[in-house]
Amino acid sequence: MSERYIKPGWFTRTVFNPFVASLTRAGVSVWGSRVLRVRGRKSGEWRSAPVNLLSFEGKRYLVAPRGQTQWVRNIRVSHEGELWLGSKVEPIRVTEVPDADRVPILRAYLKKWVLEVGVFFEGVKADSPESELRRIAPDHPVFLIQSSP
User: Containing domain of residue 68, as a range?
Assistant: First the structure.
């Protein structure tokens, strides 16, 4: 498993992510944005992060463009969380997608959000050869979302 993690810069931490999160909390989804809430793996307290929800071939996914983020580490332990859009809360369960199965999902993710997240994919784009997407797949965790009962 890759340990790659790209820490958000000042602008992302203090301006962009809070702005997108506040819009999402107000019920305005920016191209599929949601606020993901997941319990901390050590503290058990709820943690929040804005995420881009990807719908692809009738399924929904969470992709971590920055790699091994805290939300990734937490959801790997709990396998569950909540997706928020405004006052609507959707409990979810997730299963991590194996590296070998990530290529078409990453391609779809890049096709939709390359302008926002492309910098985290080492120059790989939606139309890059499959070998390039396979190369970066271990650096970008992907989770299949199932709604919780």
Answer: 10-147
